[in-house]
Design a protein that fits this description.
7 strands; 54% helix; 259 residues; alpha/beta; Rossmann fold
Length: 259
């Protein structure tokens, strides 16, 4: 199944920078009217000003009431939502983190996707068309060694996307899960150890390349979006021999720490 982007309405959360800003720009070039949603309203407005038909909204996507109100406003001002990119993410909690790190990570990487799905999927199902995209991470398939809160909750993002695909995938709605490794975003740049880890695992891509891959997946209906194709092989290796994979990851961790 595929979703027509031209003339459709797309929402991008975390749209004020990084992958989200690139997604907003790419969807707009495809002819979509885009709602740029970000916790920082100023960042959302800055991105929206660069697009021909866009709405900027400052929204806390971990607040279910705020998400419902945002969906209602987008519907009233732009039209029914045909594409929803649940993209907001945070880098929080070195090592095992603390209670605040875990709470914030669960809220953004877990429940924010659930709040969005509750708000937008029933109308999509009723219309028999739509695309719902969750930005997870290769860390959700493999691991990000610098942060337990990040990698564990990104695994939750993948599981939520899989559950939604199983539950709604036969209704005319396509569900997609984006799992890149390193992408040149403010979040990666702010974490020297995290950037060293992703650089050791593969190329650090530009957000525009990731956005291109998302648009291609929406067009083709593919669930798992891997801007770094090697992640597929890494995951196969993990499943085939988990003890060997863990040993390799320990060696990689030691090499990064030594550098």
């Amino acid at each position: 199944m595929s979703v027509r982007l031209a003339g459709n309405v797309a929402v991008v959360t975390g749209g004020g920078s990084g992958i989200g800003a690139a997604l907003a720009a790419r969807l707009s070039r495809e002819g979509a009217r885009v709602a740029v949603v970000d916790l920082d309203a100023g960042n959302a407005e800055a991105v929206a000003r660069t697009l021909p038909e866009a709405l900027a909204l400052g929204v806390d996507v971990t607040d279910p009431v705020a998400v419902t109100e945002m969906v209602d406003r987008v519907g009233a001002e732009l039209g029914p939502i045909g594409v929803y990119c649940s993209n907001a993410g945070i880098g929080s909690g070195a090592g095992l983190g603390d209670e605040v790190d875990w709470a914030r990570s669960w809220a953004v990487h877990g429940m924010a996707h659930v709040h969005a799905a509750r708000a937008v999927l029933p109308p999509m199902v009723e219309r028999g068309a739509g695309a719902f995209v969750i930005t997870a991470s290769a860390a959700g398939l493999l691991a990000m060694m610098q942060s337990a809160p990040y990698t564990v909750t990104k695994h939750a993002s993948v599981a939520i996307a899989e559950w939604l695909s199983i539950t709604y995938g036969g209704s005319g709605v396509s569900v997609h899960c984006l799992c890149p490794q390193g992408v040149r975003t403010p979040m990666v740049a702010a974490n020297a150890l995290g950037e060293a880890e992703v650089a050791a695992s593969g190329d650090i891509l530009e957000p525009s390349k990731v956005a291109d891959d998302v648009v291609a997946a929406i067009a083709s209906g593919v669930f798992l979006i891997l801007p770094h194709p090697e992640v597929h092989d890494y995951e196969v290796g993990k499943v085939a021999d988990r003890d060997r994979w863990l040993a390799v990851m320990r060696k990689l961790r030691a090499r990064i720490a030594a550098s």
